[in-house]
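Prompt: Have a read of the protein record below and flag anything odd:
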Amino acid sequence: MRAVLAASLLFCCSLMAADLPKPSDEPILTIAGLIQNSNSEGAADFDLKMLQAMPQHTIVTRHPWVESRHHYKGPKVSDLLEMAGARSTKLTLVALNNYEVEIEFDDIAEFEPILAWSDNDRVMRVRDKGPLWLMLPIDKHPELLQMPYNDFMIWQLRSIIVK
């Protein structure tokens, strides 16, 4: 399964335009490391407009940090990795406060996580765990409530390092 995902990521990346547009506003996400497509000194920077221009997906779910179901919207993590031309599925996710978590993307790829920029139709601010929050569909997959999956749902995400 991992080899298939890695091969498909490489194939898809070769189909993507190597010229990634530059953000017009302040970047809120940087993808760096083993990537093929960049727009800023070997990294792929994304501003909110760029993320909003990608295909959007919604996850409606409850999780330990909210009391009721919330509607989260954003692009799939796999689509972002594809745009950047990720050459590995081992990722380090880094938050604004420098909290880090390492994951093998294959471990969660089947759940199609998104990088949510919207919570209940409102753009998330830093004080609302934004600007980006890796969101998993916990209501559809209750097994995600256990460790280590909770750790993967990093909020105030600012960068993804592909290793």
